[in-house]
């Protein structure tokens, strides 16, 4: 082959001319170095060699390290491992030979890298990450790589994967905050959104408008947040506790109004009434009464009472309410505000009144303290028609298998199911996958604030993106999913 033929075959004349022109335009003081670097940049990157080896991690346990060589340089990476790898993680390939590193050596994995993986990847462009990943996935067909939400769906036998409607905590009270609000939470549900991504946007925007509303009325101190991330202002003291609750609902109503979303956003409250119930053995909050005040004891003895003033130091006693009084209050609130769900409206042993409220059909009635995710209590509630929805806390019931069982029990009874976080949370996002895999339709995981709460919402964003056109947001069907 002549020199000219070689130049023509590789189009070197054109490439060199382009490099020279680039050097002239750059007015470089060292044209040879510039042209050399320019030529390296225009040449496509290609994997030329892959070398794997066994090294030790920070605990002295074997792991894999790989050197990747290209025509433009070399790179190195190694693989970490948790103390206990989760059952849903991709499987670590360890040798299992107890005579070598107590079974933890990874020589088989290294061999796979140096032979099978190397052969598949040499010649590929290292910048095309998705193509490289797909090539390795094609080599390794392990079923453990399925998404967690899909695995949960398979376990339950469900076929519909559904993104839940989030119940965002926006105002905190009760045990979750240090303010004067007896009920535990005021929440918003963006059921009018078309996608989860839009629902999250609606929740976040309402939350920030609410912050402005609270700041205008109560100052910066009113914008402190409770354990779940909801704002915890000391609401204006009124003669009637109904008005104190209404003050909180009015703040949220104003925030929703400022967003312009209108009826697309509904409200919900978690009363956690056991916290301020008096009765059932003179229980006051979580403590046995020690008072000798005869008037107070007389009030406490007249059946079950609810002390809606319990967050105030100087209680007048005017806000003790009977179960019937509480039902009347809920009727008034549901008539005045777009409340679609009430959680724990009565004490955990006040089965009578929670049934009577459920029978009115005002809204969804959720059992948390009433049910404790407990199979027997759920069966009783279904038999007695005591409520219409289950609040599911997986670590409350114990195992995923048991959680699947009680969800089926609730769904068979045509109940709603709300998968829930806990007040003491971590950044683990498991319940996000659980809610999608079981198509629950509702998730309660706090405010659009604080990392441990947002971890679940952000995971739901990822799942919706991954599902693409197959993603379904529960929306208006939040209870029927």
Question: What can you see in these coordinates?
Answer:
This protein has 481 residues and is of the alpha/beta class. It is built from 16 helices and 17 strands. It has helices spanning 3-9, 12-26, 31-42, 107-121, 129-139, 148-156, 196-218, 241-259, 294-301, 323-336, 351-360, 375-384, 394-397, 400-412, 430-437, 451-467; strands at 47-56, 62-70, 73-78, 165-166, 168-172, 185-189, 266-270, 277-279, 283-284, 287-288, 305-307, 320-322, 339-343, 364-367, 389-392, 416-420, 441-444. It has a nine-stranded mixed sheet with strand order 4-17-16-15-14-13-7-6-5. A five-stranded antiparallel sheet has the order 10-9-8-11-12. It has a three-stranded antiparallel sheet with strand order 1-2-3, with helices on one face. α4 (107-121) packs across α5 (129-139) and α7 (196-218) packs across α8 (241-259). The N and C termini lie far apart (72 Å). Keywords: Magnesium. This is Phosphopyruvate hydratase. It holds the Pfam family Enolase_C. Residues 47-152 form the Enolase N-terminal domain. One of its GO terms (cellular component) is phosphopyruvate hydratase complex.
């Amino acid at each position: 082959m002549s020199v000219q033929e070689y130049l023509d075959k590789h189009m070197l004349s054109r490439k060199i001319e382009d490099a020279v022109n680039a050097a002239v335009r750059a007015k470089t003081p060292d044209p040879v170095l510039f042209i050399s670097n320019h030529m390296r940049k225009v040449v496509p990157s290609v994997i030329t060699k892959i070398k794997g080896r066994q090294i030790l991690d920070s605990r002295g346990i074997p792991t894999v390290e790989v050197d990747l060589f290209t025509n433009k340089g070399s790179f190195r990476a190694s693989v970490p491992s948790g103390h206990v790898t989760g059952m849903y993680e991709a499987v670590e390939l360890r040798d299992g030979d107890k005579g070598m590193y107590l079974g933890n050596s990874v020589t088989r994995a290294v061999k796979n890298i140096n032979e099978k993986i190397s052969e598949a990847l040499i010649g590929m462009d290292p910048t095309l990450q998705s193509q490289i990943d797909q090539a390795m996935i094609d080599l390794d067909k392990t079923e453990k790589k399925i998404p967690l939400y899909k695995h949960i769906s398979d376990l339950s036998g469900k076929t519909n994967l559904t993104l839940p409607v989030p119940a965002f905590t926006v105002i905190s009270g009760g045990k979750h905050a240090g303010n004067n609000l007896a009920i535990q939470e005021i929440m918003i549900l963006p059921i009018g959104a078309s996608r989860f991504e839009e629902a999250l946007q609606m929740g976040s925007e309402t939350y920030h408008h609410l912050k402005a509303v609270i700041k205008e009325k109560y100052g910066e101190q009113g914008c402190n947040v409770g354990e779940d991330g909801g704002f915890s202002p000391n609401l204006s003291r009124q003669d009637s506790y109904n008005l104190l609750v209404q003050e909180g609902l009015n703040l949220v109503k104003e925030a929703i109004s400022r967003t312009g979303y209108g009826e697309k956003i509904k409200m919900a409250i978690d009363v956690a009434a056991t916290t301020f119930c008096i009765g059932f053995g003179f229980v006051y909050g979580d403590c046995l009464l020690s008072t000798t005040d005869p008037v107070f004891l007389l009030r406490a003895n007249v059946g079950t009472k609810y002390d809606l003033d319990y967050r105030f130091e100087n209680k007048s006693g005017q806000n003790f309410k009977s179960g019937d009084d509480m039902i009347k209050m809920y009727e008034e609130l549901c008539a005045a505000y777009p409340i679609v769900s009430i959680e724990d409206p009565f004490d955990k042993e006040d089965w009578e009144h929670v049934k009577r409220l459920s029978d009115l059909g005002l809204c969804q009635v959720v059992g948390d303290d009433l049910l404790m995710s407990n199979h027997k209590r759920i069966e009783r509630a279904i038999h007695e028609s005591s409520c219409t929805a289950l609040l599911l806390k997986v670590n409350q019931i114990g195992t995923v298998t048991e959680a699947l069982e009680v969800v089926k029990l609730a769904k068979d009874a045509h109940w709603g199911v709300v998968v829930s976080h806990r007040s003491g949370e971590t950044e683990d996002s498991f319940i996000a996958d659980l809610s999608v895999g079981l198509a629950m339709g509702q998730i309660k995981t706090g405010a659009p604030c604080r990392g441990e709460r947002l971890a679940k919402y952000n995971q739901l964003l990822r799942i919706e993106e991954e599902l693409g056109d197959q993603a379904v947001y529960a929306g208006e069907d939040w209870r029927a999913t």
